[in-house]
């Protein structure tokens, strides 16, 4: 028999909140002073307006509630959570999947609150990660920036489709039609210039050799209708770009107190300042919440899932859906690292050859996340690259020889090995 740690202590004073947009239902469970060993239960319906929530918070403090749990319902949990936190309570935000109601039983807001309270008092729940105040502010900015980048990208795609509709094949010749040369050409189109030879002469520097191709690309049917739409689209792109720049200035102000951390994360191949901002905003700076790198990887869903039954492993080890903002930042960092002459770049290329690009992206993203955990856990640590030949230097030559011999024998050859020194 193997001893395990199993804490069955029941929390004496607990409250559970079923959160809605306009109303919350609270189940409070405390010991019954008249009947030892029994529980008292109180159901409270409250509006989500701030004065009503303050009254509810005072009631919880009066009853000596030590734990308040609530489900993560859209963004409706935020005002309730923040207000209870400001009143000195210790609210827990839990994943709705962890407290799924038993099938076959009726479901109401009241029953959901009671069920959540009973599960919470037996300590069968884990709190979700809710960052501290300063990190929340940074998270709001980085997430809004990510949203604006998507808006700007979508608008750029609309511009390209509009040019295709006008038979202007600029994107077939120019890699970035929104560079300096591309924007000048688009501005000339809006100004009424339609001559391909004149438009092609606006090319600069390395684009100059493409002038003959550009002249052919500008042969099309660009009408006033296209100009009207293009003007609106470019205005939206410029507006989004200005807003993104303003957000980045504000982000730099917020990360100034831990600029050293950003610098250390920036040393990881593929991780730039923007990715470092996102990582800090999504996982915070305190790694005590994640005891090991494996805990952080599991939370971020950068570790294979386990689905085993009757001794058989089902599925293909899918990672599941985690924090999409963190996942996007790590994925982009992994792809950027693939183009570097570093350990991470070599790791990506080796995995991509055997398992494909998507799996290599997840694997290298996890490696980056492990490195980030160590850097945040050790304030004095710095990233040191192992080099692109690290894996080959540590490989066992005898094992590699056996593998090659086995492959050749499987193809029908008889292999005789002769050392180079004796040849």
Structural write-up:
This protein is of the alpha/beta class. Helices cover 51% and strands 9% of the residues. Strands 3-2-1-4-5 form a five-stranded mixed sheet, sandwiched between helices. The termini are far apart.
Number of strands: 7
Going across the biggest sheet, name each strand in turn.
3-2-1-4-5
The succession of helices and strands, N to C, reads EEEHEHEHHHHHHHHHEEHHHHH
Question: Pairing-aware structural class of the strands and helices?
Answer: alpha/beta
| Beta-strand share of residues | 5-15%
Rounded mean pLDDT is 86
Reported for the largest beta sheet, the result is: 5 strands, mixed
Radius of gyration over C-alpha positions, nearest whole angstrom: 29 Å
Overall geometric form: extended
The portion of residues assigned to helices is 40-55%
**Total domains:** 3
Question: Helix segment count?
Answer: 16
Distance between the termini: 60 Å
Multimeric organization = single chain
**Low-pLDDT runs:** none
Structure keywords:
7 strands, Nucleotidyltransferase, domain 5, alpha/beta, extended, five-stranded mixed β-sheet, 423 residues, single chain, two-stranded antiparallel sheet
């Amino acid at each position: 028999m193997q001893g395990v740690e199993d804490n069955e202590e029941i929390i004496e004073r607990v409250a559970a909140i079923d959160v809605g947009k306009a109303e919350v239902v609270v189940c409070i469970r405390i010991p019954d002073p008249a009947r030892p060993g029994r529980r008292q239960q109180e159901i409270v319906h409250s509006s989500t307006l701030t004065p009503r929530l303050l009254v509810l918070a005072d009631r919880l403090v009066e009853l000596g509630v030590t734990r308040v749990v609530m489900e993560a319902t859209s963004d409706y949990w935020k005002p309730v959570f923040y207000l209870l936190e400001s009143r000195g309570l210790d609210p827990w935000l839990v994943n709705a999947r962890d407290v799924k109601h038993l099938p076959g039983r009726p479901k109401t807001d009241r029953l959901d609150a009671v069920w959540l309270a009973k599960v919470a008092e037996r300590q069968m729940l884990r709190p979700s990660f809710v960052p501290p105040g300063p990190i929340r502010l940074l998270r709001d900015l980085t997430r809004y920036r990510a949203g604006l980048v998507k808006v700007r990208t979508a608008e750029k795609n609309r511009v390209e489709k509009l040019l295709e509709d006008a038979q202007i094949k600029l994107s077939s010749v120019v890699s970035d039609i929104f560079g300096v040369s591309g924007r000048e050409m688009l501005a000339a189109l809006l100004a009424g210039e339609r001559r391909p030879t004149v438009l092609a002469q606006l090319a600069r520097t390395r684009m100059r050799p493409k002038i003959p191709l550009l002249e052919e690309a500008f042969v099309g049917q660009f009408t006033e209708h296209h100009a009207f739409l293009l003007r609106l689209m470019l205005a939206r792109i410029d507006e989004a770009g200005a807003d993104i720049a303003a957000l980045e200035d504000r982000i730099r102000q917020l990360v100034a107190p831990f600029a050293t951390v950003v610098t250390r994360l920036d040393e990881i191949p593929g991780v730039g300042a923007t990715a470092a901002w996102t990582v800090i905003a999504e996982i915070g700076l305190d790694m005590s919440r994640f005891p090991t790198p494996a805990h952080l990887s599991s939370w971020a869903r950068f570790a294979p899932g386990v689905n085993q039954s009757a001794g058989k492993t089902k599925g293909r080890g899918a990672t599941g859906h985690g924090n999409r903002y963190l996942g996007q930042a790590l994925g982009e960092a992994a792809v950027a690292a693939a183009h570097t002459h570093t350990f991470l770049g070599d790791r990506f290329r080796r995995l991509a050859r055997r398992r494909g690009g998507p799996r290599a992206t997840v694997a290298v993203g996890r490696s980056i996340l492990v490195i980030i955990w160590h850097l945040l856990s050790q304030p004095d640590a710095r990233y040191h690259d192992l080099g692109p030949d690290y894996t080959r230097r540590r490989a066992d030559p005898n094992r590699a020889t056996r593998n090659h011999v086995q492959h050749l024998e499987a193809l029908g050859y008889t292999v005789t090995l002769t050392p180079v020194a004796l040849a």
